[in-house]
Amino acid sequence: MFRFANEIWLYALLVVPVLILLFWMNARWRKRVFEQLADAQILSNLIPTYSKVLPRWKRFLFVLGLVFLFVGMANPQIGSKYEEVKREGFELMICLDVSNSMLAEDLTPNRLERAKQAISRLVDRLKNDKIGVIVFAGDAYIQLPMTVDHSAAKLFLRSIDTDIVPTQGTAIGKAIELASSSFSQNTKANKSIIVITDGENHEDDALEQAAAAVEQGIKVHTIGIGSVDGTPIPVYKRGQMLGYRKDKDGNTVVTKLNETMLQQIAASGEGTYVRANNSRTGLNALMDELEGMQREEFGSKMFTSYEDRFQYFIAVALLLLLIEVLLPSRKLKMFSNVNLFATKK
Predict the structure, then answer these.
(1) Residue 208 C-beta-side C-alpha neighbours within 13 Å
(2) Where in the sequence is the domain holding 269, given as residue range(s)?
(3) CA atoms within a 13 Å half-sphere pointing along the CA-CB vector of 188
(4) Is residue 144 part of a domain?
(5) Is residue 345 part of a domain?
(6) Per-block mean pLDDT, blocks of 10 residues, the chain (345 long)
(7) Are 317 and 214 members of one domain?
């Protein structure tokens, strides 16, 4: 198989016919000028070093050198063989709480940003493993479907904030239920769910959903993020803090980590509960456990191994251009009286 790695350079070849046209027009103009000055025999006597052939060769070498240079920059590649790479890994769905309570600043800079930073570092540790992201507050939504594109995962992660979900609350059960249905169906790969939340304002049947996930072969882990002592939720506008969030009675809302609930969910989901703080978020500990799981083959990928050939074209181009530079446009004086095509009298 054959291909160009940088096909855009092939458009530079459009310069070649333009150069040929310009060289041709210049040669015709020079010929007319010399014909007006004197005929060919007199001109040969007046300028013994004049040559018609050498300038043509210089132009030919210059154009040919550019052709090889542009083709070399396009990097021609030859496919040497097909290779099949088996992909083994596990599937991981992360459920991230984006309710307003995640804006609390008992973790630096706040709970949500701290969680996003930890997820980003976790993605860096993944190999051929699949990852997906679900955001939830009063309802749950798929932010990133299951994928092996880890760069896309980090890109989607940066766009997550508390405004991404219209309904406030903490519907952990809905998030687990949605995550369980988002895994690949026809695979034996190990599957896990990690719920990152403060666990506050629990509204639905999270314990039942965690148990249902286990029946499908899915483990449910939880990470508690926040302080059990409670902290107010700041309100910002254009980067400036206006105060703290208040309830309908005008009292300052204090958000607390519901650690007991998260421990129960992890137990029901046969998973692990980890509490996050400013020194660690718990994802690394969970990732160590996940990496210990047996990875299953969930697909293979066929690809062609290509070998670069640009170096040969660049070498020829440089040689041709070097010869063009060194080749004189006029005869050398020692050869000025030599005429290989002269007729003997």
Answers:
(1) 5
(2) 86-300
(3) 4
(4) yes
(5) no
(6) 85 91 86 67 59 82 93 85 67 94 91 91 86 94 91 90 88 94 81 90 79 94 90 86 87 90 94 82 73 63 70 93 85 52 47
(7) no
